[in-house]
Amino acid sequence: MKILVTAFEPFGGNDLNSSWEVASLLPDEIDNCLIVKELLPVNFMTAGKEFRALIEKHLPDVVVSLGQSRKFAGLSIERVALNLMDSAKPDNYGYMPQNEPIHADGDIAYMTTIPIRRLVDVCKQKDIPAQISNSAGTFVCNRVYYEALYFVAKKHFPTKTLFVHLPYITEQEKSPSMDKVVLAEGIAEIIKEIGNWQCETI
Ligand code: PCA
Fold first, then answer.
1. Alpha carbons 192 and 118: distance in angstroms, whole number
2. What is the domain class of 2-201 according to CATH?
3. For a tag site, which of 19, 22, 48, 188 has the least CB within 10 Å?
4. 195 C-alpha vs ligand 1 centroid, how far in Å?
């Protein structure tokens, strides 16, 4: 199985983005999964298109998309993407949308079809803090997640996508933070579990 792992460049005055630091620690193979890693810009206007281009380039079975968030000291496995871009701060390219839909013909929200509770459980079995989150926010992470779920819903491509928000890593000296090695172990556990599934069933 091929897994595309995406992560983001730093934003909001940070020197690092924990998502890319953690993605970089993942090996190129995990059990039966081949791992491809790609970096995305924190750019409302282009991130969706670039994300789709990566899917078309690599043709992965599943995308595991990572982003940084300060909401939880552990892995937040996102269930929902909203058809909304709304930010109080500009993205890295100076754009600050407010109350803007992503796709005019899209549903208000889409939920991932990946069984996320099982993924929370596999992390917890390894003592890695994890939770289901019912909001990926309204910034660029949600923008990218919505793109993936919209394109599946519209049957433009079959690729399943999971979005996971990660806290800061210890090196960033912010809170909440975690050891990047532990976070990478959590993502590897999630990938192992996904690798055990038949893609048609998720
Ligand atoms: N986190 C932001 C965008 C990039 C990232 O890593 C978010 O949660 O939308």
1. 12
2. alpha beta
3. 188
4. 26
